[in-house]
Design a protein that fits this description.
22 strands; 3 domains; alpha+beta; Rossmann fold; 19% strand; six-stranded mixed beta sheet; Uridine Diphospho-n-acetylenolpyruvylglucosamine Reductase, domain 3; 15 helices
Length: 475
Amino acid sequence: MDFRDIPNFLQEKCQIDHNTPLIIGVSGGADSMCLLHLLYDNGYSFTTVHLDHMIRTSSQKDAEFVSKICSQWGIPAILEQRNIPQYCLKHKMNLEEGARDQRYDFLFSTADRLNAKAVLIAHHADDQVETVLMHFIRGAGLSGLKGMLPKTILQKYSRTIPLIRPLLNIYRQQIDDYCRENQIPYVEDETNKDTNYFRNRLRFELIPLLETYNPSFREVLIRSTHSLQGDASTINELTSEMWNVVLIEEDVDHITLDLQKLAQISSGLRWNIFRKVVHALRPDIRDFNFEVMIRLEIFIKNPNIGKVIDLANHLEARHTQNGLMICDSRYREPVIVFPHYTDPGIILKTPFEKQLSNGWNLTGSIVKNLKETGILSYTSNQNESWLDLAAVSGEIFLRTYQPGDRIQPLGSEGHHARVSDIFINRKIPKEARSGYPVICDETGIIWLPGIMISDMCKVTRETKNILHLTISKVQ
């Protein structure tokens, strides 16, 4: 690709013509000055935007340079100063991450205010090579190895205004040649040669070393990104189709997926579903790595209602009555999603069907022929329990939770746990605890609906008759 192709790219791939209002991010360096001149020389309608990040003492001179050039060329310009080191200290971010975040925030907030239709920046092919290498070294999957896209939506900053990189297939040497041939002035950022920055070490140390193995390393890597972008596009289409199958509920702070349907699809497609969930909740997340994905895989293969694991960036995964929920760690489900009982305690005579207080239904029956159940494992399964009827002592009671209640959890080998601790561990809101129903016999709790059964009543090989209990939300 050369500079003559850029107007066609903008028209055909981005639906941008000469009258489309644009925002151009200009630092004053060779690449952004090249893009500025290209758009100016081809008669596009745009506003230049420059952010003085205050990282270097010379950054104010860069801002003055951009302002002077735009004034000479008759281009409208908006300049702003933000103290990035102070911002990074406050938000516990490194300088590169903080500068990137504030730069995009400034670009897109300005674009929104001016009703611009796109934001253009000057990332070029050498930036692409460095970015892909950074992602590879840090252990990224396909989403990282495909590199930057020529046109994309950064949802953290705008859900409607695209970010466009017209120079993404132009190499830095071509940019330098263009600036020299057209006598375009630019400034040099002295930090670009500081190898304390990870990207600069790649640029000046690793990439030249790799070129001793293959002189065409940059071109080969760029071709690979084009191929991987095609693969990623196909996978995204499949992921979107499956998303409609597994999605139960979506909101700004939580997304719930059908656990059974998730378990039936391939692990690769499932991982892409997870990425889609996480990026919907945290559009700019950068630490959702392979280890987190493995934890999620293990988690969904061991269903346990209410169990919770931490993921990344204040997100967590929870097993719920409905399926798998990934949510902000501060999110609490409305009390209505938990079973609730307000009447005095009663004796339950099997078979029975009892309507609870907030649209939940409790049923009980006795199964005398185990073969008729078709169940291979008689452990607690979401809102269903299978108990050894012979291990149940006397009458069966329904009542609400009482402070001091204890239960012998399944598999605890005689250990008893406080129900209050179980509620805390399972993230049962305080508002839902006082009216939470429990099923007891004459010795104690035998089932916490939707949570666990007592080990004392578990089904064994000697079991002859089963007490089958269910609790369900009435549709």
